[in-house]
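lol forgot to send this yesterday, sorry. struct tokens for the thing we talked abt
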């Protein structure tokens, strides 16, 4: 029996989201703005980065850039109400 999620664990993690219009975050991998671009198919990865047990920052990535970077914060999880088609 396995547990799907453990909210008590304070460590870096990544989630996959659709890029919203007006998003102006910069990609932590390629340094280009994370906005509507064909290469990421309107998907982005938002990583909550913990240093030790303390939340440090949020990093944004194009979805493809996050894969290129080696999924350094783990495989991005999808929001429970959005399934990848
Ligand atoms: Zn990028």
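and heres what i got for the seq, position by position
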């Amino acid at each position: 029996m396995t547990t799907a999620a453990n909210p008590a664990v304070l460590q870096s993690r990544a989630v996959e989201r659709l890029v919203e219009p007006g998003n102006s975050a910069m990609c932590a991998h390629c340094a280009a703005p994370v906005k509507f671009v064909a290469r990421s198919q309107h998907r982005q990865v938002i990583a909550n980065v913990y240093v030790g047990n303390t939340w440090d920052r949020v990093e944004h990535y194009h979805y493809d850039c996050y894969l290129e970077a080696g999924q350094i914060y783990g495989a991005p999880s999808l929001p429970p109400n959005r399934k990848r088609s």
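Residues 27, 29-30, 32, 61-62, 65 surround zinc ion (CB under 6 Å). anyway ping me if u want another try
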